[in-house]
Structure formats: structure tokens, C-alpha cells
Amino acid sequence: MILVTGGAGYIGSHTCLELLQAGHGVLAVDNLSNASQESLARVEQLTGQKPRFMKADLRDRAALERVFASGRFEAVLHFAGLKAVGESVEKPLEYYENNVSGTVNLLECMRKAGVKRLVFSSSCTVYGAPAKVPVTEDTPLSPPANPYGRTKLVIEDMCRELHRSDPAWRIALLRYFNPVGAHPSGALGEDPRGTPNNVMPYALQVAIGRRPHLNVFGDDWPTKDGTGVRDYIHVVDLAKGHVAALAKLDALGGCVALNLGTGRGVSVLELVEALGRAAGRKVPYQVVGRRAGDIAETWADPSRAQALLGWKAELGLDAMCADAWRWQKQNPDGYGR
Q: DSSP E strands: which ranges in the chain?
């Protein structure tokens, strides 16, 4: 049985699906603050297998201990956490409490239960504003430009120090870039509560007519068209990367960081144009000022993940946009919370 924190969320639910299809039992834990249990019902529909679910907040130590008392777990895949760059600048303490304190509780409960195998959902933000791209795992870790990224770096440091104190731990730190897209069935996708913080879900709501236009945060960045450049990765590829890391945890040994990305930088305007092609309509946008905490560009060198995990991203930008648009069309109100 694999414990998946944040298992009802966007990346967590897609990974639960891939885990079930790979033959694993799954217990998803989520506080449902930015997720819907309907996502797991859809996972069951798609796989014919029912993931177990327990509602719990990682900051609630007693609730987490009940989770670990409910079964024996081979490993933990840890997705739970707040994840919006802009919001983290406005609410830094909330991000440290949720992401860092929650992870301390999780690691303590894992240690107490004798579960020392972890795949952690980290982020390319730990590289800060890299001096050059593409980014490799040997790129110096520098202070991230926002509190969200700093919480990821703190958690990575905790994991490294935990392994140094007890070499029995096996930890994969998956630094992924910008997840987009949806399951190709259109049944599973990203459904943020309130105003989306990330470009793709916001652009989808513009394309379907729920919002008038997309805000593009700056067109004066030192990039190919002046807009921010990121490495967008299909969420299905990302989920498969987690399953591959789980399978190789023991072979990797120790505490190992791996980039999960496509290796290609895509600008915001290129993403908007690709989504317009998928939707068959233009996605209106307006340029506004730069957003606090952003950087100009980053994309991955994913060759180490390919070498050590036998994994690489297979789906390109057009597939990301087509699948995301299918999800949006079939679920105009998301999971209908």
C-alpha cells in the first residue's frame, strides 16, 4: 500500500491513477482545502479500482497518526502543500506552517511507523533565478524568489539531513517544472478553487468564456518574446515519473534529487497560442506588470531522470493543450463542488 498525501489534488489524483494501473494499492490523504474527493471517484471509474481515502490535515498530528495506524505502507508519495507563487508572497507564514510544519509531522509519523521510503514533490523553484539554462541537478541551489520555493528548499534540506542522520532512508526529491494538461479521457484535470494562480487553468477559463482575458505578467523579460519562459510538462508524464521513482527508490539509494521536465522552454505567449489552436479560438490576453516572486526563464535538463529512472516526458505542448481543453469542455465547472 502506498500513502499519497494530497492524493485528491491535481497531480496527486493523476498519480493515484498511475499507481493503481501499475498494481499498487493506494491510500489517498487530503484535507480537501483545494481539492475534491470527486477526483478519486473519477480515478475509480477510469481504473476499475477504488483508492482508499482518509480526510486529514498534515498539521493535525493526531489525525496523521490515525492514518498510519490504519495500515502498513511501503512508501509515501508526498504532494500535500500550498503551491501558488503569488499567494505565497502575500501569505508567507501560511505557506511555512502548511508546507514545512505539515512535512515535519509527516516525517515524524513515518519514522515512528518504520516507513523510510519517500518520494517528495519538490520544485524547480529551489534553483532560484538560475544563472544559465537548462538547469541540471548540479545547478547551485540559491534562495528562491518566493516563499513557496523557500518552503520546498527547507523541506529538501530536512530530507537530506534526515538521511544523513539515518542512512536507511530512501528519498527521491523530484524537482518538477510546470505541470499542465489533463488525463486524455477528459475525466480528470486541474480544478483550482477561486481564482486560478497558474497560467493554464486561468487561460482555460478565459477560453471557455468564464473570464474576459488572461493577464500576462510582463512582456519586458529578457526572453525570446518578452514573456516568461517555463518548462511545461504534461501531468500524465509527471505522474508516471513518480511511479518510476517509486520503483527505483532502493536502487537510487540515499536522498537523490531529479529534475522532471521536457527540456524545452515555452513562453507564456507560445502557450496561449497553442491553447488557442486546441480550442479553435483566440485566447484574449492583456499585458500587466510583473508579478512579485517571478523569474525570467527556466527549463530542465531531464537527462539524469532518464538515466536513473528510465523515464522521459513523452507528450508535447499540443497534447498538453488538447487534453487540458478536453477536460475544460467536459467539465466547465470543474468537479462541480
A: 2-5, 26-30, 52-55, 75-78, 117-123, 170-176, 178-180, 214-217, 229-230, 232-234, 255-260, 266-267, 285-288
pTM score of the predicted model: 0.95
Query: At 131, which helix (H) or strand (E)?
Result: none
**Catalytic site residue from 148, 176, 202, 232:** 148
pLDDT score recorded for residue 337: 55
Strand partners, 176: 123, 260
In one-letter notation, the amino acid at residue 320 is M
Q: How far is CA 251 from the centre of its chain?
A: 24
Q: What is the mean pLDDT of the chain?
A: 95
Residues in the chain: 337
- The contacts of residue 73 (CB under 8 Å, 6+ apart) are 1, 2, 3, 27, 113, 115
- For the question of residue 202 being annotated catalytic, the response is no
pLDDT at position 292 = 78
pLDDT interval class at 194 (50, 70, 90) = confident
If one looks up domain 2-180+232-261+300-313 in CATH, what number appears? 3.40.50.720
